């Protein structure tokens, strides 16, 4: 199974491989990415076999005709893991209207950080013109905190490990977070080509069952045990990565056992996406994903 990794992070199928849950399936790492949309586009083009992205980004790709199916939830927000929109402590930005005309750093366009921000501003009553005045700046996650402190950004969106490290260093505060806005929810899924799932159903079932077991392991084991395992995996795979960041891991953020997918996790974004992509009106939510290969569906 070919895939792209994330520097300093351990994906659930990487964990499954380390735990011995994948049987005779072999993983092939072809490099790293910092963008969910890029990752799932690589699935469509056949460069990799599995990739993951924010559910809103998946919807956009499906609306464009991409033959992909979501198979497991792999990240989200809860009381311990959330995407925060941060400013410097002395910043005048304190509410939605203060975002007008400001520069906001996000990891990529057309994905989680952009859609959550837009929803936050819409719910506060900002007009489309006022929302459009907010300037989104693509910044690698590892550079977001520095860009904020140097004045290149007015707001920086940071999540999980980068968020925890920035909070530990201080000098910043949160304006709002996705968890405060929406509560606990799974935000993104792994996707595979629909044809692969049909033509190699047995392989997909074994691979995804093992990955779901790994997700459940991370959901249920003590945090310190999970962090230690992740750090060990990062060290042994020898990709010239720093294991310090993984020490700030708090939780999977995945709402349901073993990465099960629920309608809500697409419906939350589907109505908004359908405004600009009418094709989504004709796609039933249940046709966007499958729990068929997940052993926790019962």
Structural class: alpha/beta
* Regions with little confidence, pLDDT below 50 for 5+ residues: none
Overall outline: globular
SSE order, as H and E? EHEHEHEEEHHEHEHEHEHHHH
Terminal Cα span? 26 Å
- Which whole number gives the mean pLDDT? 93
The description of the largest β-sheet is: 5 strands, mixed
What is the helix tally? 12
How would you write the strand order of the largest sheet?
A: 7-6-8-5-9
The CATH superfamily of the largest domain is identified as Periplasmic binding protein-like II
- What portion of residues is helical? 25-40%
Q: Cα-atom Rg, whole angstroms?
A: 19 Å
Q: Tell me the total number of β-strands.
A: 10
Strand content: 15-25%
Secondary-structure arrangement, i.e. CATH architecture of the largest domain: 3-Layer(aba) Sandwich
Number of domains: 2
Written description of the protein model:
- It is a single chain.
- By secondary structure, the chain is an alpha/beta fold.
- It has two domains: 2-76 and 186-287, Periplasmic binding protein-like II (D-Maltodextrin-Binding Protein, domain 2), CATH 3.40.190; 83-182, Periplasmic binding protein-like II (D-Maltodextrin-Binding Protein, domain 2, 3-Layer(aba) Sandwich), CATH 3.40.190.
- Helices cover 40% and strands 19% of the residues.
- It has helices at residues 12-19, 36-44, 55-63, 112-123, 128-132, 144-149, 160-169, 178-182, 194-199, 201-220, 223-237, 264-276; strands spanning 2-5, 28-32, 51-54, 68-77, 83-88, 103-106, 135-138, 155-159, 172-177, 185-193.
- The protein has a five-stranded mixed sheet with strand order 7-6-8-5-9. The chain has a three-stranded antiparallel sheet with strand order 3-10-4. A two-stranded parallel ribbon has the order 1-2.
- Strand 1 (2-5), helix 1 (12-19) and strand 2 (28-32) form a beta-alpha-beta unit.
- Helix 3 packs across helix 12.
- The protein is globular.
- The protein starts with a strand and ends in a 22-residue tail after the last helix.
- The mean pLDDT is 93.
């Amino acid at each position: 199974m070919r895939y792209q990794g994330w520097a300093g992070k351990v994906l659930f199928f990487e964990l499954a491989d380390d735990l011995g849950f994948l049987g005779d399936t072999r993983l092939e790492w072809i490099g790293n990415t910092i963008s969910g949309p890029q990752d799932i586009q690589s699935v469509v083009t056949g460069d990799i076999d599995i990739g993951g992205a924010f559910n809103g980004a998946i919807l956009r790709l499906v609306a464009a005709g991409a033959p992909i199916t979501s198979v497991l939830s792999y990240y989200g927000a809860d009381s311990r893991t959330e995407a925060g929109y941060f400013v410097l402590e002395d910043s005048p930005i304190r509410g939605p209207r203060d975002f007008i005309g400001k520069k906001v750093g996000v990891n990529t366009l057309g994905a989680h950080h952009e859609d959550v921000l837009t929803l936050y501003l819409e719910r506060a009553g900002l007009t489309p013109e006022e929302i459009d005045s907010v300037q989104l700046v693509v910044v690698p996650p590892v550079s977001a905190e520095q860009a904020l402190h140097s004045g290149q950004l007015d707001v920086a969106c940071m999540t999980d490990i980068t968020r925890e490290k920035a909070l530990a260093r201080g000098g910043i505060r949160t304006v709002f977070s996705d968890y405060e806005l929406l509560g606990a929810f799974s935000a993104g899924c792994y996707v595979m080509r629909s044809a692969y799932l049909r033509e190699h159903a047995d392989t997909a079932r074994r691979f995804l069952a093992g990955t779901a077991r790994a997700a459940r392991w991370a959901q249920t084991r003590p945090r310190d045990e999970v962090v230690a395992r992740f750090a060990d995996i990062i060290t042994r795979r020898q990709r010239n990565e720093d294991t310090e960041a993984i020490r700030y891991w708090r939780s999977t953020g995945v709402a349901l056992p073993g990465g099960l997918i629920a309608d809500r996790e697409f419906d939350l974004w589907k109505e908004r996406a359908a405004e600009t992509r009418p094709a989504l009106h004709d796609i039933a939510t249940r046709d966007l994903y499958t729990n068929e290969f997940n052993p926790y569906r019962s």
